[in-house]
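Prompt: I keep going back and forth on a fold encoding question. Comparing notes only helps if you start from a blank page. Show me how you would write down a chain together with its backbone fold. Please set it down just below, with no commentary around it:
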Amino acid sequence: MGNIGSIDEYGGGQGPSADVLVVTTNEVPGCQVDRVLGEVFGLTVRSRHIGSQLGAGLKSLVGGELRGLTKTLVQSRNEAMARLEEQARARGANAVLAMRFDVTEAADVGAEICAYGTAVVISRTS
């Protein structure tokens, strides 16, 4: 297996000190939901870079990972996630449940990446 790059280049997610917990589950073990604040989302739209499109087109002829596009998608998801957290924090939430990503084509010029979920206030059960 070749060099896959650093975790920051090809991965994402929250760090250990996040003040708004974001999970893909409907509940957090050991916690109860005290208040549901509603849906929150973070959105970004990324245009396609002509150079990366040409490179991706050439790479698709021979197969393999499109690393430039992978990095762009990771950056876009992380940006959408940060905006989701910001929205949740602004509403007074300390967690987002059932977080999902949605990626769609944006008028044939790029991609819309949306992170969404339910903003809640949780507390530990003892």
Remarks:
- The beta strands are 21-22, 31-47, 95-106, 110-124.
- The chain has a mean pLDDT of 83.
- The longest helix spans residues 67-90.
- The two ends are 46 Å apart (CA to CA).
